[in-house]
Amino acid sequence: MKGIVFNLLEKAVSTEFGEETWDKLLDEANLSGAYTSLGSYADDEIVALVGVASKTLNLPPSDVLRWFGQRAMPLLFARHSGFFSDHAETRSFLLSLNNIIHPEVHKLYPGAITPVFDFGVDDDGGLIIGYSSPRKLCALAEGFIKGAAEHFHEQAEIEQQQCMHEGASKCVFHVRFHQ
Amino acid sequence: MKALPNVCSMSDSINDAAALNAEIARLNRRLLRATTARHEAEAIAERGLRDLFQRQQEIALLETIATAANQATSVEDAMCHALAAVCKFAYWPLGHLLLSDDGVGRTLHSTTIWHDESNGQYDALRALTESIAFGNGTGLPGRVVDSGAPAWVNVGSHDADAYPRLPEAKRAGLRSLFAFPVMIGTDVMAVLEFFSMKHQTPDEALLRLMAQIGIQLGRVIERNRTKTKLMHDAHHDPLTQLGNRKLFLDRLQQAQRRAKRVPGYKFSVLFVDLDRFKSVNDGLGHQAGDQLIIATANRLSSALRQIDLVTRGDEDDGGDDIVARMGGDEFIILLDNISCEQVPVRVAERLMSVMAEAFVLDEQQVIVTASIGIVQSASGYEDVKNILRDADIAMYQAKQQGRARWVMFDTAMQQKALRRLQLESELRLAQERGELWLAYQPIVSPRDGLICGFEALLRWDHPIYGAVGPAEFIPVAEEIGLISAMGSWILRHACRQLRTWQHDSGRSMTMSVNLSAMQLSHHGLVALVEQTLNETGIIAGTLRLELTESAITAAPEHALGILLQLKQLGVKLSLDDFGTGYSSLSQLRRLPIDTLKIDRSFVSQMDLHDDKRQIAEVVMMLAHILGMDVVAEGAETVAEVKLLGEMGADFVQGYYYFKPMRADAAEAAWRGQSAMRT
């Protein structure tokens, strides 16, 4: 996992719960917490941090990830506003993930492993998003989608129909956007 | 970090608390500085990495393009690779090739060559693109052609209306279009265009990169052009742009294979050679010669096309005729898939008729005829080169038979041609091997039967062929350029013999030596005769040079000049075979001739044919009126000799008296007469 993800998590936690909460999470997870955006760190570390947060907040880990994804979006915008500037709506922003945003991520963070999304349209014109990654962070992806919708002042109605945690080969979301 | 002070009292503790807060604030500021510095360092590193990544990608792209350009089997192949590589590099989902139609980029051909990463999502856009004629400023490719520079446009930009495909591109989820030219020099050879899913304004780096790719691909086109040109040049004659020998042989080979495979398939080869091209080239100059060759090429080609239309119409698949230039004034024609053996003859007749019209070269009218040799495919050739050889042989026969005609090859010709070739190589060796020798035929006065002189006659005894007649080998010697050397040898040899005999006999016997037409046109003849006279010391008047009428008529003015110079040396001149050609009396009067020789055809059996006798009588009278002597050739019977004597022939030459004989026999002959007289 790239250090930028830890940086975003630190910022989200510190902003909402204070810096000492972040320190506490690190202590309880027994992690040094020295993350630089360009570094690569073990996936276990993010799993440990989410686990501690889950216990502390008495929330399932997936809720923690969803919350993080949602909060991370404005932080990403502050750091890389260029990814957003070509888009007026969530839908087109999401559609540019594979072809525009992730390639850019690779340029900034060599060695980053980005998930692959596939897109389709359902009968009602809703977006079908497939997510596939060995990290199985579908909840984080869901949070990102929510956060992106908020950025574009839309509401995302998300329904997850398949999940890798339940043995599916990939996770599938049906998303409808409302102004 | 500084150690905290000890807590001792209240005021101390208040002071300490304040100090502690100040310390915390200071530490927070320090932490903020450190964090800010870290963020800045990360940002710098990110930019650096991004740039590095970008450079690496650019280098990889250029390498990919260069490799593809070097390995491409065709321009299209190289372009395909380039489209894919650029799409991959820039994350563009769709790329397209447009090629210049005319090689200078005025109009663009919207090709069906695409790089498309979608599953049919862009099909409508592609169909629309392929239906548009770009160029003249139409669409983005047109803009690129006009400016010779990269161009781009975004969906929703203020001038979007000028780009007919933007609405369809938008429907397909695309947001912008970028195109750049492939150039050779200042000419746009092709345009590569790409569609992007996001709005974009290419930066300097991208424009530079695409320009480099444009140059690379331009080199591929240039190299391909050069290759095509080399291929063309290797198979075509630069003067006429007709196919050359190599191309012709290739085509002939194909026809040959087809003839073996397809029953009833026939072809024919025509070998066309201009008559007297050399005199045009020498007389009017090489430039006129070249003009004549070009004009001939055009006439032959267009005649062949017309014939093709007339004989085949458009119902037949077959005809794929070709005219090629073999070099010099030789053209060769393949008549492909002909219906019957009459076709090549009809074609030859037609070609001769189109050639018969006067050419205008350098404002001069020039009449040129052609000789044509024909070979039919039915003759069962294995090697196509033999077809050419035989067509050449037949053409040569056409020349031999008087030019301006066609001759169909037959195998007897080949035997003849083969013998000729053998004679050629043997004749070159004959002189040094001592196979050539001179025979002497006495010339006799019919009044007393005494020998007055000799005619020197060249003989060739070949160890295998035996005696080869002069009628056969003299033309060969003329053709291969041996005649001058041979003529000099004869003249010297005969004059030396004459000196010996004159010395030994004490009599002023004469020696007649034949001159060929070619010797007459050779500028060294007068000098040679003069030198021979000086060397041998014989009296010039005892040397008689014999010429044929035809040798003089070929170039009468020139010949007259030479004859006058020879006369000035004091030698006598004889006109050989008089009466057999187009004997021109006015010409006879002008020529400084001393002796007329009456041909054997009038002498033989003249006692039995009145007409022969009368002609001989008239010629003799004519000669005497013009002050010339007469030698009658070929007298074989006593009756002929008696008649000739009565008519007043000055000299007689023939078997009745003597056959041509070797020097020792000839010497014995005159010695015998001398002995009788004494």
Protein architecture, described:
The complex is a heterodimer of chains A (179) and B (678). In chain A, helix 3 crosses helix 4 (61-79) and helix 4 crosses helix 8. Chain A is 54% helix and 16% strand. Chain A is built from 8 helices and 4 strands. Chain A has 2 domains: 3-59; 88-178, H-NOX domain (Alpha-Beta Complex), CATH 3.90.1520.10. The radius of gyration of chain A is 16 Å and the shape is globular. By secondary structure, chain A is an alpha+beta fold. Chain A has a 4-stranded antiparallel β-sheet with strand order 1-2-4-3. Chain B is α/β, with parallel strands linked by helices and 678 residues long. Chain B has 3 domains: 69-234, GAF domain (Beta-Lactamase), CATH 3.30.450.40; 245-409, Alpha-Beta Plaits; 431-677, Alpha-Beta Barrel (TIM Barrel). In chain B, 53% of the residues lie in helices and 19% in strands. Chain B has 23 helices and 21 strands. In chain B, strands 13, 14, 15, 16, 17, 18, 19, 20 and 21 form a 9-stranded mixed β-sheet that branches. In chain B, helix 1 runs parallel beside helix 6, helix 2 runs antiparallel to helix 6 and helix 8 (277-284) packs antiparallel against helix 9. Chain B is elongated. The interface between A and B is medium-sized, with 14 and 15 residues.
